[in-house]
Description:
It is a single chain. The chain has helices at 25-46, 54-65, 80-89, 106-110, 144-147, 151-156, 191-195, 208-218, 233-244, 250-264, 275-291, 299-310, 318-322, 327-337, and strands at residues 70-73, 91-92, 95-99, 111-116, 121-126, 133-137, 158-161, 164-167, 173-178, 199-201, 231-232, 269-271, 315-316. The protein has 345 residues and is an alpha/beta fold. The strands form five sheets. A five-stranded parallel β-sheet has the order 3-6-9-1-10. Strand 7 and strand 8 (164-167) form a beta hairpin. The longest helix has 22 residues, at 25-46. The radius of gyration is 21 Å and the shape is globular. The chain starts with 24 loop residues before the first helix and ends in an 8-residue tail after the last helix.
Amino acid sequence: xxxxxxxxxxxxxxxxxxxxxxxxxxxxxxxxxxxxxxxxxxxxxxxxxxxxxxxxxxxxxxxxxxxxxxxxxxxxxxxxxxxxxxxxxxxxxxxxxxxxxxxxxxxxxxxxxxxxxxxxxxxxxxxxxxxxxxxxxxxxxxxxxxxxxxxxxxxxxxxxxxxxxxxxxxxxxxxxxxxxxxxxxxxxxxxxxxxxxxxxxxxxxxxxxxxxxxxxxxxxxxxxxxxxxxxxxxxxxxxxxxxxxxxxxxxxxxxxxxxxxxxxxxxxxxxxxxxxxxxxxxxxxxxxxxxxxxxxxxxxxxxxxxxxxxxxxxxxxxxxxxxxxxxxxxxxxxxxxxxxxxxxx
Length: 345
């Protein structure tokens, strides 16, 4: 299993392009301060349950503020579902959990029209995706046909059943967990499905001190039972709007596009990153900048997010796989070759 690195929440060293002048700078600074403050409250709340994994929790918050979807991949028992539930419970919004199994049907996810005998009409019964936060547990244990039921709602935030389209309420986020494909009873996610996830992270095993603390806090009660919301869906919508207004200079945009283009031209990759990946990378960089109380994106933001935003979308060639070079190693090589914009460029 290839384990992508989660982005550090502190800015890595490197050259940084200065921000362009922005009108209303004081108001913008106050707005990003609000984003950072509320995000800090969410983070502290989640870390009451998920101990010793600050970077992974931070990555999940970046995805939330970037209006994306999160894929958590790791071996069983390391807290994937616990992280998804803790993030969902930290926001006072609608939450639904879907357990993906081999016998799960697409209609269980999207909904189905049922004939009402008393009214003699068909009525739509919403499926599991009709919520602000949808937890898809062990998504790759369902068949590719069932997984594909998520494609429309994740990309367009709507569901079409019997030629009728139903809009999904904002914010809408899918947090899916999956086990490594090498494990028994799993199906690989289709490329179109992977591309709809803004980011993939791995939790990993806890350090001994965190595991000892877990024994004390999880041994007698479920810590999720006492977890209270620290914000609501209306405030999350407001924060996402602030993040969307974070400034991205032309130089940073060209840098992101150059990185994406390099994945398409790399001989070690059979499948490079899509234009959707470019959009996701910039959205995530805006969220990261806001969390650092900046109303502008630095090249460092883009560079720090490469692994978690792009690695799961890339398909290494057979030669690269035989040589032990996975998507993460190839991305590191690309990042080292693409020039970083200089200050003032």
